[in-house]
Design brief:
Elements (H helix, E strand, L loop, with lengths): L3 E8 L9 H17 L4 E3 L34 H10 L2 E9 L5 E8 L5 E6 L19 H4 L9 E6 L3 E9 L6 H8 L5 E6 L15 H17 L3 E6 L2 E3 L2 E3 L4 E3 L5 E4 L6 E8 L2 H7 L4 H4 L6 H5 L14
Parallel strand pairs: 1-2, 2-3, 7-8, 8-9
Antiparallel strand pairs: 1-14, 3-4, 4-5, 6-7, 9-12, 10-11, 12-13
Helix pairs in contact: 1-2, 4-5
Bound molecules: D-[(amino)carbonyl]phenylalanine.
């Protein structure tokens, strides 16, 4: 019996700084309706899907940033979304800013069964950008100011989804996709579907050298396609896109198969649903052949990967005569 699952990336267009949560929620409900008509059983919403990408804004007093965080999930603002998921029987991934009862702040993603029950949660580990206001930058990127490094590792859980039965599900968030270690930790747990949301500026805001705009999309796709191929997994990468208060985020959400092929790609920078039918048994092929980790990996040769954080210069060779 083939294990087939219809998945969707529910890309969101821009959310302005002045938009309340209800703006995103009502658009996400409409995306769930589209997902239902297209037979999707699992929907992936973007990173920080309920608000504008607020790490571009500097708050001297971090408590001023609390307006962007959720202190409980679900909560009244997202109730319409959870009602729609229950109505349509759709499981979904949601990215949001989490503030715990102890006051800790994370860039979080959670996966919910159609019932609204949280299946598992992930807290972003690779936080790009900086902590303090950077006058050199064209645009601030203050994730290191507003979030702690995630403390949940890269979990994979086997949970029933739609008509496919149990599926090995994993998550990462945005910048995580650029780090092959994140994919490999999920691959070592036999992940079959990686769900990730992203908010990626269309231009290099560090003001350190030139990076052509088209490379932003290339690097995003390269990271997801390589991650999927090298770990024999499907991936759904969903953007929040478009111009938020004058700051542009790339779209180009994609669904990728375990061969690294793009199965579906968004073509707007607005609210858009892309859908793909996944034959989950395709993962087993990669895991049994090229990426049979047990047969081919040589961890004894990889010690630098966990022993070192930064890179070190290589030894110098000079001709003996
Ligand atoms: N955004 C960007 C991302 O990793 C970035 C930041 C863009 C880093 C381009 C490096 C290069 O996609 C988030 N939110 O991580």
């Amino acid at each position: 019996m083939p294990r087939r699952l219809t998945v969707a990336a529910a890309q969101l267009g821009p959310i302005q700084k002045s938009d309340g949560r209800e703006v995103a929620v009502q658009r996400m409900v409409r995306l769930l309706e589209w997902a239902h008509t297209r037979g999707a059983e699992l929907v992936v919403f973007p990173e920080l899907a309920l608000t504008t990408f607020f790490p571009r804004w500097y708050h001297e007093d971090i408590r001023e940033a609390d307006r962007w965080f959720e202190t409980e999930m679900p909560n009244p603002a997202v109730a319409p979304l959870f009602e729609a998921a229950r109505r349509y029987g759709i499981a979904f991934h949601l990215g949001y800013a989490e503030k715990t009862p102890e006051g800790r702040r994370f860039n979080t993603a959670a996966f919910f069964a159609p019932s609204g029950e949280m299946v598992f949660k992930y807290r972003k580990i690779h936080l790009p950008g900086h902590r303090d206001y950077d006058p050199v930058r064209k645009v601030q990127h203050l994730e290191k100011r507003y979030f702690e490094v995630g403390d949940l590792g890269f979990p994979v859980v086997r949970a029933p989804v739609g008509s496919a039965g149990p599926v090995n599900l994993g998550m990462m968030i945005c910048n995580d996709r650029r780090w092959p270690e994140a994919w490999r930790v999920l691959g070592l747990q036999q992940v079959e579907l990686v769900m990730l949301g992203y908010n990626t500026p269309s231009m290099n805001s560090e003001n350190k050298g030139f990076e052509a705009h088209h490379l932003r999309v290339l690097h995003s796709h390269l990271s997801v396609q390589a991650g999927c191929y090298q770990n024999a997994t499907f991936g759904v990468a969903t953007a929040k896109a478009g111009v938020e208060d004058g700051h542009e985020l790339i779209g180009h959400s994609v669904i990728v198969n375990p061969q690294g092929e793009i199965m579906a790609q968004a073509t707007t920078w607005d609210d858009e649903l892309i859908v793909a039918d996944c034959d989950l048994d395709l993962c087993a092929f990669g895991r049994r052949t090229v990426f049979d980790f047990a047969r081919h990996r040589r961890p004894e040769a990889y010690t630098r990967i966990t022993a070192q954080t930064g890179s070190v210069p290589p030894p110098e060779w000079t001709p003996s005569r």
